Amino acid sequence: MQTLLGLFTCLVLVTTGNSLECEVCSALGTSCTGSTQTCEAGKDTCIITMSEHTLVGYTMQMIDKGCASSNVCKHGPKYMDFGQGKQLRSIVTCCVGEACRTAAPQLPLTITKPNGKRCPACYTSSPGACKDEETVACVGPQQSCLDLAVTVTYGTIVVNTAQKGCVSKSVCDDLRRNETNVFGVRSVVTKAECKAPLTQAVLGFLFFAVFLSRGTSLECEICTGIGSSCTGMMKSCDAGQDTCAVTFTEVSLAGTTTQSVVKNCEFSSVCNLPPTYMNVGQGQYVKSHIACCMGDDCKTAFPQFPPAMDKPNGKRCPACYSFFFGGCEAEMVDCVGIEDYCLDMVEKVTYGKFTINIIMKGCVSKPVCAAKVGEVTVAGAHSDITKAECTPASVAA
What we know:
By secondary structure, the chain is mainly beta.
């Protein structure tokens, strides 16, 4: 049954036209032959869909030939990752007439480099078994989170499936509620949504936002953005907040480096804070700097990220960074520059319907130790720090 479920996940995403005739067939493997059929009105090309499914510990390939609307010819390869090694990739080749019989479509390349985004992940025939805290790291072109529900009927057997994970834009372009019937199995898509993923950058500036109190009649531009600039509405600051601030953050996690900017109202006491540095091991780090400004100067503020520091200062801390339950296995890392403290932090981030539990340990500069247990909401993501402890770093033997 898992084989059938994998097969239908891709089929429901492809639209399969007039006096055109196409060969129609489906089979496991890389080739199939079938009868030639006249296409329905609106379907103006023949297509060959090659797909590969890795589910429950094994991998299978499948080919499907049929009629389709030529708009599918513009779509790129499809990549889907449901976590726990369950993945699908496919590509559509358009052709006409005899060319379809001799075409040899190739599967899209395998992509493994993380892109810094994460999505809730689940692939099950028991929808209630999906847990929002289970996530998967997206790779390459996987820029969206899929939330798909499919009812599969095979004879007297009815299975309600839930599929969540990272997907490429091409999957979302074809996404719709519809019905298909292949090999006597009826598949009905009852839910089909693509959502924005949670990015490492959001987590990065969430981490530093907890240090900032969020003005008087002062007005400041309020915005957050990925990159080195953002624009937003002017807002009157709360009582006591007497300056505008621009916070620049650089996050390097899971092989991806992302910069972000936050503009808001602040207390002038933050203007004298030195840059913040955090080293969580394995080349992963977070660094941030706050620039204070007033009025139009904030709109033209140019990011000055803290300089990189690589000279060891003779101190060491246990370090790790994990999105998962059960803790993380810390390794000792050499602290550099002004990283004189060891941080041990646990944070729960809620973004939309899913929750990520983050554990962070590593060398940090003194300003990071201002982190306190508590809650804050930034850019629609709610951060709840349940543990925040700083201790002096040990001197390396």
